[in-house]
Amino acid sequence: MTTTRRLQLAATAVVAVLAVLPFAVAGRISLGIFVFIGLFSLIVIGLSLLAGHAGQVSLGQAAFYGLGAYIAAITTLRMGLAPWLALPLAVGGAALAAYLLGAPIFVLRGHFLVLGTLGLNVVMDVLVRNVQHLTGGPTGLTGIPPLSIGALVIVGDRAYYYLTWSFVLAALWVGRNLVCSRVGRALAAVRSSEVAAAAVGINAAFYKSRVFALSGALAGLAGALYVHYLSFVSPSPFAFNFSIDLLVMSVLGGIYHLPGAVAGAAIVTILREALRTIMPRVLGSGASAEYEIVVFGLLLAVVVIFSPAGVWPHLLAWLRLEPGRSSRWTQAASLAGMLPESPPPSPRAEPASVLRLEGLRKQFGGLLAVDNLSFEVPAGEIYAIIGPNGAGKTTVFNLISGLLRPTRGAVYLRGRKVSDLPAYETAALGVGRTFQTPKVFADLTVLENVMVGLHRLTTTSFTAAMFGLGAREDAQAAARAAGYLEVVGLLDRADVLAGALPFGALRLLEVARALAIRPVLLLLDEPASGLSSAERTEVVKLIRHIRDTGTTVVLVEHDVGLVMETADRVLVLNYGQRIAEGAPRLVRNDPRVIAAYLGEEAAS
Amino acid sequence: MTLTQQIAQFLASGIINGTIYALLGLGLVAIHSATRVVNVAQGEFAALGALLASTLVTRGMPLSLAAAVAVGVAAAVGGGVYRTAIRPARDAGPLTLLIITIALHLSLKGLLLLVWGTDPHSLRPFTAGPPLRIAAAVVTRQSLWVIAVTTVVLVVLYVFFTRTILGKSLRACAVNPTAARLMGIRVERMSALAWMIAGALGGLAGVLIAPLTLATYDMGLILGLKGFVGAVIAGMASYPWTVAACILFGVVESLGAGLISSNYRDGIAFGVLIAALLWRALAALRGGLIISEEAAQE
After folding, report:
1. Which residue ranges does UniProt annotate as crossing the membrane (chain B) (predicted)?
2. Which of A208, A235, A559, A573 could cysteine-pair with A106, CB 3.0–4.6 Å?
């Protein structure tokens, strides 16, 4: 039996157990704890998507849980809204709050969300306790009506058990769709290297804020279900401490696997119940609930240090259910030859230059990396930039591709000023690039890496991806990506994880990924360094092929031989300044160039 | 009390609170610049310092010695935490490190709870005597101690960072760890040093504030976070601006709580935090820099 088949069986078994559980435990255990595990699972699925896939931590999920709860409570109790109308309001309200907080914070690279959400949690708690005429203050609100649709009133443990767990399964389905989609690949790319993701046109903040809004929505949903289930609400379950509990659940279960969220929620909830029984016996003190934090703190520390992926992978291994690396695209890849490669835009038709630099200057503190540099590259040319180490070559690339802002001067692409655009916009306008140290998306396959390159040429939206509506476009993207792999000669390794490739193949993969954005201008940063001589020959052929199919190429290279073989024109930089420009032959004999490379004596 | 007197009073208490936040904020900046870690457990150093000093004084140790021991222990805990929890995971990525500091916050808070229990502990003021009148405000003698000691610490830190090889090495590591390593600076050691400095500053904040409030096992989080507000406003990089921002923040918080309602104190404080984050984001957008220079060099 294949692992996939066994996974399907295991999933079916889990659903079956969930379905019969209320009958199995009837009269022995209260079903309430399972309702709560379901509610917490909903929140933790959102948190795991955020942490595991968007790479951000929130310490304020309890606030969104509370926001959903209070929106549902206040609109039904105080405004007489029908509960089934209050539910989407609670979900939407929590999602909106998350989005409004996240969208600006994600513009700041780094981990500021954790503080923003923590702050939100405290603010929310203070407001809920003090705006008494709305929230009922510390004592809260009672008499909240149960969910009902027409004559169907949803009351009791069993009804909320089924309702909650249906939402949990739906959330897992949505999360899985998202992870396996165009959006999921973009998020994986951002996690691997935000810089390389920007270089193929991905706006990291855009997707992170949407994932965060989704996590807010799930927490809001849990909150609304909670108040209709218990018919009462008070501030304490939504305080900051619960945000920490949720994070413990998420990390313990495993942030990289969504079902781990359910496992984490179950383990922590059951463990807490157990501690509440055991702790008072061991410590014999009245404040035993406070001691839980010791256990949870140590548990979190141990898990995150020794098994950062949580218990889920261990659980799968123990059940012999480890999924092999998905090869869902292999089929699509075999279509590579069958799909007509649409011709890239033909810049040759345009008389104007593709790239123009005007008086470009970049200063890092006291260091002048690029000094008043101007040059122009016409369409269809291979233009090489050479110069001794530290001459400012890579800085020029970073300035062209938008990773750095120039101190002065401007960069124009086909006449349009691009030096004030963020890197992902520059990429979308057709500037592809590779990096001196290859930055591939290590946890995606070779094929998926190139599919990420197609990001801006595909359209599946976040919402469509949630509902699995991008499959057809994905298949086409896979076929196109396979085409680019064929060009660089990596098609036979399409399903290998990119992180497992040898160095030379990494360079080729970066080229394929950059070609996938259909660049009008391709920047190659030392394409031949670290390659064997056979690989080098291939790269020379590849560079010519790229130019012949209509893409203008600018390359930075130390291998002067390669430059002489391929380049139409050469620019020599030294200390950020142009010292020569022209045909390779002429440049090679320029005394200033020889001086820069070999010293003044050699030149004279 | 007239409104002027009230405002003078709020200003005074805001400056004193802000000074305490500054000590925590400086520790956060030290850790962040040396190890790129956002230390959620920073406030726990203060709680440890406060509780330890109060117990030692209760057991009969002279206050000055107790304060020194408390600060020393907090520094040692800072270094120890780095060695046991941060360094082993230093290659694991910022997300893991962040979660580790959250775990540290919980574990340290839990340990404080196990040792000191839930009861508040008091520490006597450094010097006895009635409060003093400064302009329109009435200020306790301990408050002046807070400001005096912090001023001395700031001068010492300034000299350390600008005049000593060790301090300059630490700054070099913050700017570019790789280059610092190539220059023969032992980056690991500098990171441990940053954590020890952060521990000491946190412990000192606790010792200074304990006579003004009371020492409890769970006093740390809010204090640390408030230090964070100032550090974020100042961009997580500059020591002097962090001090200025923390004091300004303390004043805003105190005025807000005093003039609106003290129930809203923490709400106002963290409202300011969110506003500060949004403000920094807007500034980043205006600069058009989506990918930082540091990232481009990575």
Report:
1. 6-30, 63-82, 94-116, 143-161, 192-215, 227-252, 264-282
2. A208
**Separation between Cα atoms, residue A552 and residue A520, nearest integer Å:** 6
Nearest to A293 among B110, B273, B285 (CB): B110
Chain B neighbors of A130, CB-CB under 8 A: 261, 263-264, 267
CB proximity A62 to B under 8 Å: no
Which helix (H) or strand (E) segment holds residue A408: the answer is strand A408-413
CB–CB contact A404 B261 (8 Å): no
Between B280 and B147, where is the model more confident?
A: B147
Q: Establish how many alpha carbons lie within 13 A of residue A427's alpha carbon, considering only the half-sphere containing its beta carbon.
A: 28
- Domain range for B259: 3-287
Q: Can you give the pTM of this predicted structure?
A: 0.89
Q: Which of A47, A100, A107, A268 is most worth mutating to test chain B (most B CB atoms within 10 A of its CB)? A: A107
Of B238, B235, B242, B206, nearest to B223 (Cα)? B206
- The reply to whether B293 falls in a domain is no
Q: Spell out which residues of chain B touch residue A251, defining contact as CB-CB under 8 Å.
A: 99
Q: What is the ipTM of this complex?
A: 0.84
Residue A47: closest CA among A196, A205, A222, A204? A222
Which residue's structure tokens are 């699995």?
A468
CATH number at residue B193: 1.10.3470
Nearest Cα of chain A lies from the Cα of B152 at a distance, in angstroms, of: 30
In order of their start, the domains of chain A are 3-319 (no CATH), 353-598 (3.40.50.300)
Contacts of A194 in chain B (CB under 8 A): 291, 295
d(CA A21, CA A282): 32
Which residues, 6 or more positions from A604, have their beta carbon under 8 angstroms from its beta carbon? Answer: A591
> Which residue among A114, A300, A421 places its CB closest to the CB of B106?
A300
User: Does B75 fall in a domain?
Assistant: yes
Residue B27 lies in a domain: yes
Distance CA B3, CA B33 (A): 42
Nearest to A447 by CA among A326, A546, A322: A326
Do B103 and A300 lie within an 8 Å CB cutoff? Answer: yes
B295 within a domain of the structure (yes/no): no
User: Closest Cα partner for B234 from B25, B43, B34?
Assistant: B25
> How far is the CA of B91 from the CAs of A187, A486, B187, B277, in angstroms?
21, 35, 14, 27
> How far is residue B75's CA from residue A299's CA, in Å, rounded to a whole number?
25
Q: How confident is the model at residue A365 (pLDDT cuts 50, 70, 90)?
A: confident
Mean pLDDT of B97-126: 90
